[in-house]
Specification:
Blueprint lengths: L2 H24 L3 H18 L4 H12 L7 H6 L9
Length: 85
């Protein structure tokens, strides 16, 4: 299967999952909506080729008390994972 076709199918699946998540959230089915959000995150990570270590580094930056990133840390992450304030 060509890469473009695969990516298109994944994007369509992502849109469907997001619609389902919104529906569940509107109906106060928060636990199921949260579980679906994990599937959405996993799919987005696959689409953007984000590794687990990159996600962990982003979460660590968000959780840290440091207001400004050091340039060396910012360069280690792909541009779509850099924290914008």
């Amino acid at each position: 299967m060509p890469v473009a076709n695969t990516e298109e199918r994944l994007l369509a699946l992502l849109a469907t999952l997001e619609e389902c998540q919104a529906y569940l959230t509107d109906r106060a089915n928060t636990e199921t909506a949260r579980l679906l959000s994990l599937a959405i995150l996993e799919l987005r990570m696959e689409l953007h080729k984000v590794t687990d270590s990159e996600l962990k580094a982003l979460c660590d930056m968000i959780a840290s008390d440091e207001p400004v990133l050091e340039q060396s840390t910012a360069r280690q992450l792909p541009p779509y994972l850099r924290l914008i304030k």
